[in-house]
Amino acid sequence: MSPWYLNYNNYPNQKYVSTRTLPTFNFTGQKIRGEVIDASTGESLSFAKIAFSNNPNINVVSDFEGKFEITVPNGENYLNASFVGYDNNQQYINSPYIKFFLTPQGVELGVVDMFEGHSLASEINEFPVSDNTISQEDIVTIQAGKSGVLNKKLKSKNKFEASKLQEQKSQQQYAAVQIVQKDLRVEFTIQSKFSLKSDGFDQRVQIASNDLPSSYEYHSIPKIDPAVYLVAKVSGWEKLNLLNGESNIYFDGTFIGKSYLDVNTTKDTLAFSLGKDAKIQVLRTKISEKSKNKISGNRQKTDIAWEIKIRNNGGAEIPMLVKDQFPISQNEDIKIKDLDLPEGKKDENSGIITWDFLLPKNQSKTLNFSYTVDSQKSYILYVE
Known about the structure:
- The chain has helices at about 120-125, 155-170, and strands at about 5, 30-40, 50, 60, 65-70, 80, 90, 95-100, 140-145, 150-155, 175-180, 185-190, 215-220, 230-235, 245-250, 255-260, 270-275, 280-285, 290-295, 300-310, 320-325, 330, 335-340, 345, 350-360, 365-375.
- The protein is mainly beta.
- It has 3 domains: about 30-100, Immunoglobulin-like; about 120-170, no CATH class; about 210-384, no CATH class.
- The strands form 8 sheets. It has a 6-stranded mixed β-sheet with strand order 17-14-13-21-25-24, with no helix packed on it. Strands 18, 19, 20, 23 and 26 form a 5-stranded antiparallel β-sheet that branches. Strands 4-3-6-7 form a 4-stranded antiparallel β-sheet, with no helix packed on it.
């Protein structure tokens, strides 16, 4: 948001409805190739089904190496991969080569050893009934011990997912990289050896994965755009030797767009816009009862009062950051006076007002501010 300067014969303050420009991909009529991989072992999955979201009848099956090839029909943007005993995976078609990583479902069948004169049913019935409620997603593992006695283990879903995530992280292979910092650049030298297929496609090598602390905040500038954006702030990035360039933004595992990563900043946090949130509504209106125009001789005095209403229709309390502004005079003949600002903070140099607060779920909040502009009536002056 830039400062708003007032002078005679100025132009009306334009209102822009800005949207997050997401990259569009159109692979209609083109062949998409890819592979299906077991996320827990890294092995290829043969005979996995790959189909389109809107046309499930258009599908192919992966070969013995987990590879597939399919032609994109008109109007299709998503591919689904499925396999018996695995969770389905959907991906946006943003590349001519797509990899699906399927996660095994949460039921493991252990090996049961049968012994002569030993009843499997009787052993299971010996265990007391658990007081815990076990859903279908929870894990029931029945294993046979060396003594033939069955051990029944009930694991909660959270513990299972945490162990699976830790297992997948431990199995991920990263290239050994030597980082060399020079005067004007940073070099990443990959020391591992790789075999690259001559298939004409770009090959990517994962060199690192880092978990950084982040916080989320909702931003709105209703004077410019009547939308509310979810913004993620990441700290600790300055230790990673990041480079300026294009970045892909994913939220909850879903690709939401591209952004430009600018690390030439003095701030200790990097901010990423995750797009609009329709559950948060904002409305900026002029209060007609308090907005008046008075003329005295060759002078006119204009009172302007604004009201901003924000409502949280989401399911949780959210941190909100709302901005607006007072005008700044560029002419000694134009006098501006701030009348009312019950809440919020004003930057004296730029005139920008900032409200920072928590908004509970299913609650609304009203923000008000007003100002007066004293000028000559013979000149054109837009003060809204």
